Amino acid sequence: MSQPLLRTNVQNVTDRTSNPFGLRPPFDRSGPNERTAVFGYGDANADFHVIGDHPGLHGGKRTGVPFTEIANGNAIQGVLRDPDIDFASGPRDRPVLENCYLSYVHMCSLPDGHQPTASDYAELERYFDAELRAINAHILLPVGEQATDHVLREYTTQRRRFDLNMADLHATEIRGRGFMVVPIRNPSEWDDDDREAIVETLRGILASDYRQTKGVATRIG
Asked: What Pfam families would the database entry show (predicted)?
């Protein structure tokens, strides 16, 4: 399927929480009792889009919901459930999300212990791009080095400015081409202050007129 055709077929189906755009994974390498893919999930009209790497790293191979099941995913959910953020509520395996959407750069599941290859990421890039543009959020929150690298390369003009030191990039605000990008260090690497740092950054964004961010970033990106 070509990229233009995929974009043409994506429609904003707001009454579906999981895979609202009806994407179909191009391959199945999942293990027993695992979902073929962990599709995007949440509010399809969200202003905040949390972007993980792949199901093996950030969870959901059995629930089918990003950022569930495992420690990395639960840590991100903990941020989204913070009373001052209040993006997530309800069951952790199938949270109710408001103003927030979750997805992965590499949505397909792989057997435990396997990592996506460069060609795997490339094969799924058009799916991720189509979904990101359909959601059209104001704030992109890539989690971990792979997702941050991809988002900075594809949706900002500033990748060359950074060496991908996630400790330095964590919870910072970076102007993109029509987006504000706020990288999040992988939770398994968090220091004592990292959780509070991302919560504090999100508090500040929510307290601001962040919906103007998109227009400003478009003009200067």
From this structure: UDG
